[in-house]
Amino acid sequence: MKQLMNFMGRETGEKQRKAVLRLELDYELATLFDAMSESDKLKITECKEKLKKIRQELLALKAL
Question: Which residues lie below 8 Å from residue 47, measured CB to CB, with a gap of 6+?
């Protein structure tokens, strides 16, 4: 029974993390768009790095 409760808790946590990551993904894409509109090369690079990390985490959670 304890194992089942742990599994259910972990599953809920993963769902919440996936939702948060998707929000972060949307935010970073919007930030990247703004940076591209302003031709801010430094901000573009920073956004791309953050997006790569978000993508890797989503892949690890099998959310993509």
Answer: 28, 31, 32, 35
Residues 45 and 49: their CA atoms lie apart, in Å, by 6
Q: Are 54 and 24 in contact (CB under 8 A)?
A: yes
40: left (phi over 0), alpha (psi -120 to 50) or beta: beta
| pLDDT (average), residues 33-62 | 96
Q: Find the CATH number of the domain harbouring 40.
A: 1.20.58
Q: Is the model's pLDDT at 64 over the cut of 90?
A: no
- How many domains does the chain fold into? 1
